[in-house]
């Protein structure tokens, strides 16, 4: 199989459009691609993510906390189609990806494993052609073993969990449980959750120690809070009045203790989805998700009180187009979000670093209403955009491109609609920020297309 492996080094300009210098790292140019596989924080304090572009190229990025590209690697072969579903960092600091491999002229697809060393060099690539019509969906490292979940819709294997020996490339069947998320306890037992709300505790031999079901569905993203000895997870409570998305809490005995519904965690009338959670060092819930507001999906991060579930900080990325926050990782100061943005051209992937309070605004109803007071149209635009508020506003306007460069700055007294000439700007995405005289900040993203 012919392979092209590219490793490049470069520096990334930080976006400076907000306080505390949050930055956005854009992973490659626009293109047809799957969602990013995962965001992990490595032992050397960097961020790694990957995605598949145009079905035949795997892009892997390692980025420092300062927003610098440490390395970028590409596997590319037009004769094959790839999917990447999950990834982990191994004890030797190498990065392991799992997914699916398929020849373009074949209906068969196979589980797939790729390993990069700490320098971004490809060291191993395995196609398990004895497991046809299946793929590896999850990978974990427990009990000094690499553990993978095998998925197939054709009944080729009753076993779903295997341990993988990288050296011999051997797979050992372990369990028939098709789990969605996993956490490890101090006694080295593990807890698995399933799509149907099953919770199964296993020992190191994968024997079942305990089983519970709490009438939850679409359970994902378990997080074990070792200080409180509580398990938090995302799912739908089928017993609630509206079968709401939310965050559930279990104790170590797997008793169901409470449920925070979505409208408490993320007070939005139009709803949304939670994709990932963690408990930060301050002992608060942190949620990455998607808010549906004014008929559009917006990436979001929420910081919520762990006792009441009510938001105490965070940020919604009010941008035109469909956008999702898939994962959140806590950093030494603040958080990193993995985002996916879909617009009229195609799609982009971002790693976004935000401050410890989620960004620079609190999440509250006033902010939602204030941000919605600003209208930017047309969007996309080519020669001009119009700004309009519901009420007269005075303040300072800045427009940035996606490299963090200030392309326009002006003091505005907006008693009515204000038209801005953008004909001299290149095609692409831009961030508009308006800070009024009451220190209320409005953010909008718009797209310039050149016909």
Task: Write structural notes for this entry.
Among the domains are: 1-169; 374-448, Immunoglobulin-like. It is built from two helices and 36 strands. Mean pLDDT is 81; it is low at 1-21 and 360-371. It is globular. It has a five-stranded antiparallel sheet, with no helix packed on it. The protein is mainly β.
Mean pLDDT: 81
Q: Which shape, going by the Cα principal axes?
A: globular
Q: Termini distance?
A: 41 Å
Number of strands: 36
Rg over CA atoms, rounded to whole Å, is: 23 Å
Oligomer: single chain
What is the strand content?
over 45%
Number of helices: 2
Given as residue ranges, the uncertain stretches (5+ residues, pLDDT < 50) are 1-21, 360-371
Strand order across the largest sheet: 1-6-5-4-3
Structural class: mainly beta
Q: What is the helix content? A: under 10%
Largest sheet report: 5 strands, antiparallel
Which tags fit this structure?
single chain; 451 residues; mainly beta; Immunoglobulin-like; five-stranded antiparallel β-sheet; four-stranded antiparallel β-sheet; 2 helices; 3% helix; disordered N terminus
Q: What is this structure's SSE topology?
A:
Layout: E1 4-10, E2 23-26, E3 39-41, E4 46-53, E5 57-64, E6 69-76, E7 80-89, E8 95-103, E9 109-116, E10 122-127, E11 135-142, E12 145-151, E13 161-165, E14 170-175, E15 179-184, E16 190-194, E17 198-202, E18 208-213, E19 216-225, E20 230-237, E21 245-251, E22 256-261, H1 262-265, E23 272-279, E24 285-293, E25 296-304, E26 311-316, E27 322-330, E28 335-342, E29 347-354, H2 365-372, E30 374-377, E31 384-389, E32 393-401, E33 406-414, E34 418-421, E35 428-436, E36 441-448
Antiparallel strand pairs: 1-6, 2-29, 3-4, 4-5, 5-6, 7-8, 8-9, 9-10, 11-12, 12-13, 13-14, 15-16, 16-17, 17-18, 19-20, 20-21, 21-22, 23-24, 24-25, 25-26, 27-28, 28-29, 30-31, 31-34, 32-33, 32-35, 35-36
């Amino acid at each position: 199989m012919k392979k092209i492996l590219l490793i490049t080094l470069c520096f990334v300009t930080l976006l400076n459009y907000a306080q505390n210098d949050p930055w956005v790292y854009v992973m490659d140019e626009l293109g047809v691609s799957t969602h990013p596989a995962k965001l992990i924080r490595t032992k050397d304090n960097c961020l790694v993510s990957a995605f598949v572009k145009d079905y035949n190229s795997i892009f892997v990025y390692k980025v420092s906390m300062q927003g610098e590209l440490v390395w970028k690697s590409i596997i590319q072969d037009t004769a094959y189609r790839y999917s990447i579903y999950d990834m982990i960092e191994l004890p030797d600091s190498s990065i392991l990806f799992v997914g699916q491999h398929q020849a373009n002229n074949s209906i068969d697809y196979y589980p797939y494993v790729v390993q990069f060393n700490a320098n971004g060099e490809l060291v191993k690539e395995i196609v398990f052609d004895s497991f046809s019509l299946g793929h590896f969906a999850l990978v974990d490292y427990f009990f000094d073993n690499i553990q993978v979940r095998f998925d197939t819709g054709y009944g080729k294997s009753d076993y779903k969990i295997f341990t993988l020996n990288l050296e011999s490339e051997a797979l050992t069947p372990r369990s028939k449980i098709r789990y969605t998320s996993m956490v490890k306890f101090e006694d080295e037992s593990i807890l698995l959750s399933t799509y149907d709300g099953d919770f199964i505790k296993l020992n190191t031999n994968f024997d079942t120690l305990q089983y519970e079901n709490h009438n939850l569905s679409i359970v994902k993203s378990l997080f074990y809070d070792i200080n409180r000895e509580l398990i938090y997870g995302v799912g739908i409570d089928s017993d609630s009045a509206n079968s709401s998305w939310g965050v559930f809490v279990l104790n170590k005995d797997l008793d169901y203790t409470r449920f925070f519904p979505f409208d408490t965690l993320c007070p939005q009338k139009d709803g949304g989805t939670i994709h990932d959670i963690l408990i930060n060092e301050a002992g608060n819930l942190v949620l990455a998700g998607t808010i549906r507001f004014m008929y559009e999906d917006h990436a979001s991060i929420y910081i919520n009180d762990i006792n009441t579930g009510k938001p105490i900080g965070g940020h919604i990325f009010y941008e035109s187009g469909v956008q999702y926050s898939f994962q959140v990782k806590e950093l030494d100061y603040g958080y990193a979000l993995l985002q996916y943005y879909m617009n009229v051209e195609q799609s982009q992937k971002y790693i976004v670093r935000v401050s410890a309070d989620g960004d620079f605004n609190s999440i509250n109803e006033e902010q939602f209403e204030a941000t919605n007071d600003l209208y930017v149209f047309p969007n996309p635009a080519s020669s001009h955009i119009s700004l309009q508020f519901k009420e007269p506003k005075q303040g300072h306007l800045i427009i940035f491109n996606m490299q963090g460069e200030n392309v326009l700055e002006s003091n505005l007294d907006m008693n009515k609609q204000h038209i801005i000439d953008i004909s001299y700007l290149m095609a692409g995405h831009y961030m508009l920020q308006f800070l009024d005289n009451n220190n209320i900040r409005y953010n909008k993203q718009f797209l310039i297309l050149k016909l």
